[in-house]
Amino acid sequence: MSGSSSIFKVYAPALRRPPIHVLIPSSYAEDAAHLREKTIRVGFLFRAMAIFRVERMIIFHEDPSNPSRNALLIKLLCEYMSAAPYLRRILFRLRPELRYAGLLPPLNVPIHPESPLPPKDGWELRDGLVRKRGGLAVIHAGLKRDMALESSLRDGARVIVMARMVGEKIRVKVRSARRVPYYTVTEVQVYEGPLSGLVQRYSYSIATDRKGTLFPEVASKLKHDLQALKSPICVAFGSYKRGLNEIAALQGVPFESLFTVCVNFIPEQGVRSVRTEEAVYAVLATLNNLTAL
């Protein structure tokens, strides 16, 4: 729990510094035999993003000239998980891709409250949805009653509602996600262009690969570099079919010039291949501890 500027605390962790953006290939879980298994694996992957306060997960195509439709499935499942349970029936119509959504693990991020009543000793963050009714903005935020405000908020806008109990009344503040200095949930995007165009957006980029520099050999430099950075960094992962070097070769990009550093975060791995979701947990846990020290 992080403190606020008032005497009341806020029930949410601080944002990561520097922010981390994770790059995942669109073929992730494409090898699963059934939608049921795909759904479970995407849920396991996206839980890692929330656990380690990843700001953004970006799905990229291994071959941009032949984009995979699987990217949209990953994005849909992650967005379903991101929405507070009380908003899901409003935001998501019945569709076959969500047939096994009930198997997705609860995300339990700060904006997914456990009760329709906020706490009395601090601010609680809530996922809110705006519905316009004439000149009023009605905000659904899972409280005992919807809030009606005179506001210029657009219909369908997603907002962060800060709520707490004052006596027997609920006090609220409405904020955009960008104005809340706490981790709320991980944003999900699909990137349609070449990997080089995506990676070039970042001043510091990390490739994860079995053939990279062993983590113990680069740990001190990574820690020094990350502590000096304020802008987002990216951490990229390969797929079950291709490592990042093979993806770069497929796209005609020299792998050596693509990333700031390439690291083997799992030296002496005991299995022939590490699944993407397993690598994500290992890498993000390592970086989390590295920047916390």
Structural commentary:
This protein has helices spanning 35-51, 70-82, 88-91, 195-199, 215-228, 244-250, 276-292; strands spanning 2-3, 9-10, 20-25, 56-60, 122-133, 136-140, 147-150, 158-166, 169-175, 187-191, 205-214, 233-236, 261-264. The chain is of the alpha/beta class and 293 residues long. The protein has a domain at 18-106 and 186-292: SPOUT methyltransferase, trefoil knot domain (Alpha/beta knot). The strands form two sheets. Strands 1, 2, 5, 6, 7, 8 and 9 form a seven-stranded mixed sheet that branches. A six-stranded parallel sheet has the order 10-4-3-12-11-13.
Q: How much of the residues is beta strand, in percent?
A: 25-35%
CATH class of the domain at 18-106 and 186-292: Alpha Beta
Let me know the largest β-sheet.
Answer: 7 strands, mixed
SSE succession: EEEHEHHEEEEEEHEHEHEH
Apparent shape: globular
Please provide the count of β strands.
13
Please mark out the parts with pLDDT under 50 across 5 or more consecutive residues, or reply none: 1-6
Radius of gyration: 21 Å
* Distance linking N and C termini: 19 Å
Give the name of the CATH architecture of the domain at 18-106 and 186-292.
3-Layer(aba) Sandwich
Structural class: alpha/beta
Helix content: 25-40%
